[in-house]
From TrEMBL:
Pfam families: Bac_globin. SUPFAM superfamilies: Globin-like. The keyword Transport applies. It comes from the Bacteria. This is Hemoglobin. Transmembrane segments: none annotated. GO terms for molecular function: heme binding; metal ion binding; oxygen binding. The keyword Transferase does not apply. Keywords: Heme, Iron, Metal-binding, Transport.
Amino acid sequence: MSEAPDHQDAAARRSAMVEQMQAETGIDEAMIARLVDGFYERVRADPVIGPVFNDRITAWEPHLQQMRLFWSSVALMSGAYHGRPMPKHLPLPVDARHFDRWLELFEATARERCPPLAAEHFIERAQRIAESLELGIAGANGVLLAKGERYVRPTEAWSPGE
Ligand code: HEM
């Protein structure tokens, strides 16, 4: 019945870490749920990034559930999320403008729904992940970004005489 000792150790270390992160930041699962739900409400109604989500996500509840697990893993290091976000983003028709808007909405929601220290904890992590997704998307489109450079897709093809 009992787990192997090193599994027990790992599980005990994990829950100690989660407790420590919760104590330091005040973040818990209820706060994560408030942040995620409020954020995607804004996302869905947004003219810049809303359509990218609404064209692809037909069932929102499973997506919200995944995102709560994701943020639990990222913010509390709970290990609750087991997906791989990068491949899901590589085919999306997005660039720096979409990431800027995503972060703007995320930051506004975090500052509105979380105490300041917790909000900054979420925002710092979101910024880092957004940067790495943008880098990945640029790479998937054959563009190698220099440090700090942003990925901007060429606008509509222009032909002489138009
Ligand atoms: C331009 C900004 C973004 C857009 C338009 C976008 C859009 C999407 C869409 C449409 C999906 C669903 C894909 C699918 O299930 O096939 C998705 C999944 C996901 N997104 Fe984003 N995203 C953006 C930025 C971000 C950022 C900055 C993060 C993290 C901080 C993030 C985290 C995730 C995660 C974890 C999933 C996968 C959930 C799962 O495992 O099912 N996204 N995103």
